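Workshop exercise sheet. Pairs work together: one partner reads the sequence aloud, the other fills in the structure field after running the prediction. Swap roles for the next sheet.
Pair: D.N. / O.F.
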Amino acid sequence: MDIAKTLKAGLCSMMKPKSMMNQPLSAETLGNKPSYPHGLQLHLNADSMKRMGHTAKNYTVGQTMTVDAKVKVTSIRSDEDGDNVQLQITDMMVDNK
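Structure field:
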């Protein structure tokens, strides 16, 4: 991945560093090493897709898309893992072209 090109586009990779992917697995992740941190997946139900004028037929597994979203900060906290900010998506559009 060309990080310089990604940063120029205004996006940054959220993939975990390889050092984090080699950490011991919990019972929940046994056999499934996630490449991205928890909470960075979007799940769209039929109603959510309908609001954007989509159905599941607009999507293909492995397809790369762009998501434009407006978010609201709903929580800021610090704990032993560091600082955390929770964002609630309030408006969103997925470009599947």
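Discussion prompt: The first helix runs from residue 3 to 8. What would you look at next?
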